[in-house]
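--- STAGE predict ---
source: upstream dedup step, 1 unique chain passed
mode: sequence only
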Amino acid sequence: MPKKIIVPFKLKSEVFSRDKFRCQKCGHFGKSEELEVHHIKMRINEGKDNINNLITLCYICHFFAPDEEKDFENYLDEKVDGTILDTFRKSKKSTAKRTKKGMNQKARDGNPITRAPWGYKIENKKLVQTEHSYQVQEVFQDFLNQEISLTKLAKKYGFSVNGLKKILTNQSYLGKVKFDKQTHQGSHQALISSTLFNHVQNKLEKLNIKTIS
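--- STAGE serialize ---
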């Protein structure tokens, strides 16, 4: 069974377009979110991220695809009628819809959907403060008030640059819960003010223009 491997978005789009958004085993025509890009020769066997080594499969055919190149060639030759698998596709969509509905309800109730951000932990399905909570405001203030690069600030607190960016843009610190592009009032205590948060977003926007790709 293949492991989930991240393929660059542009390359993935090129593979889907070349294969006309069809699974090359069962023929299922689908949207991008229903399809997977499979490495014919796996990375672990020195397979490359290039279009000639990649092929479009639906998520079901991808799940059962073997890792070995020769085995995969035989697997691909054994074509399957994609309509036979539609029952499984509908089942997954139904399950995903119910799951998303439940997560939306959790967010509306002000409860966390993902793991706790730095400065919080989850207890009894709620976000509560940790020993690092006081440092959250420190990080925001340091970024706003000091002429210090993101790299140096991240190193000061033991984060990666991307990790620091996620902290500086996380609305959880305002006492909010965000899910599916909707923001709800959380049941947890805010760690910073909206004024501080907004000033930091303004500075981030300027840095994005100048230095952040």
